Structures are given as structure tokens and as C-alpha cells.
Amino acid sequence: MIFTMAPAPKHSHAEEQQLILDAAIRCIETSSIMDFTMSSLAKEAGLSMGSIYKHIRTKEDVMVALATEMYKQQYTTFEKILNLPMPFPVRLICLQMTNEASACCYEFGGQLDMLVGNEAFLKRASQDWLEKMMSADIAVEDLVSQSLLDAVDNGELAAKPEKIDALVEEILLGKWSMCVGFIQVARQRATRHLVGKGVDIPFPLDVEDAIVQSMKRLLNTYPWAETVTDQAIQAGCEMLVEHGLR
Known about the structure:
By secondary structure, the protein is mostly helical. Helix content is 64%, strand content 0%.
């Protein structure tokens, strides 16, 4: 009896997964975040449906997987900004003043972010992908939280020892809520273009934009070593440009 060896896999597990995610991006960009199909994804990736289902079981898994990669890039971008030589509260504002390529990864990043914030949508995704996405999302939050704690340690933010954790959570939650709310409102206004009444999304933000001024006023209510000024924010924006983040 003659035994023949099965051919070696053409791609590793990680390579196949990356092929699928790259193909998903192209499929969404040529159709839409709602209209692409799993069969078109397989064709674009050059893989069988069996290979696709080894990695991705549903269209919701595709969205969650792409969001995971988006949050990982967001972490990398935030980490760079939080290590730039500028006053810490200015760094916090600059987190929202990057270009869309640095913040979202994809042209459809805003739509994706809204989808994966919907619990009913996420219930249709696989548990393993949900855990990966949630871990990536929490890592971003923990990064900013730890940076605030570091600002207390190095004297940039004054806080009584027993109030540190509460103060950090207050600043983090207040700023995050303001920015997320603004982005949702901006995107909602932009969708009005479907009836000829849309308003352009103002990204990247400029110093004089209302949300930037609101963030400045919010942060200046806290005991920083340096007060946030328009000049400092503008200098921060220029530094972002130097580092290819704006």
C-alpha cells in the first residue's frame, strides 16, 4: 500500500485570518458595512468557505474582528500621544485631535464603532471574538487611566491620596462621555445628507471647535500644574503633525 502525504497548508492560521480581515475591508469598501456577503468575502480572500468558517462564523464576527484591530490601533496611537512632551491635560485633548486614519483604521470606522456598541448586535457574535474585542477596548481605557495615575505621581495633577482613584475615574468618565457623545451627535447630523440636510463631520478637530473648547473648560476645573490654553492645544496639534498623527 502506498501512502501519500497531504499537501502542506498554503497559509498559516494567522496568515489565513489576516487574509480574511483584509478581504473583509475591501468587500465593505466596495459594497457597504451591511451589504457584503460571506461568499464575497471568501472569493476576495481566495479561500474556501470551510477555511473562512474556521476563523469567522458570522457577519457579526467579521465586524467584531475588525473592531478588535481598530481598538488595537487606537491603543498604539493613544500610547504615542500620551508619551509626547506636552502638558498632560493637553495630551488628553489631543487624543481626540488626530486624523481619522490614526483613530479609526477604516473609512467605515465610525459606522463600525456604532455597530459594535449595540448589545443586540453583539449577541449574534461568537464568544471568543467578543472576548478579544472587549479585551482590546478595555486595554485602551486602562492605558488612559494609568496615565492619569502617573500624572498624579509626577505632580501634574494634585490629588489627596484617599481621593486619587475617584478623581481619576471622574476625569476619565467625564472626558470619555463628552467625546463619545459628541462623535455620536456629529455622525447623526452627517447622516442627514440622505435627505439633503447633512452637516460635514468636523474631523480632524481644530482648537476653536466647540467640543475642544468644552474639553478645555472641563479639564481646567481640575487642579493641574499647568492650565490648558488655546496656545498649548495648538502646539499639541503641531506636535501631532510632526509625528504623522494629524
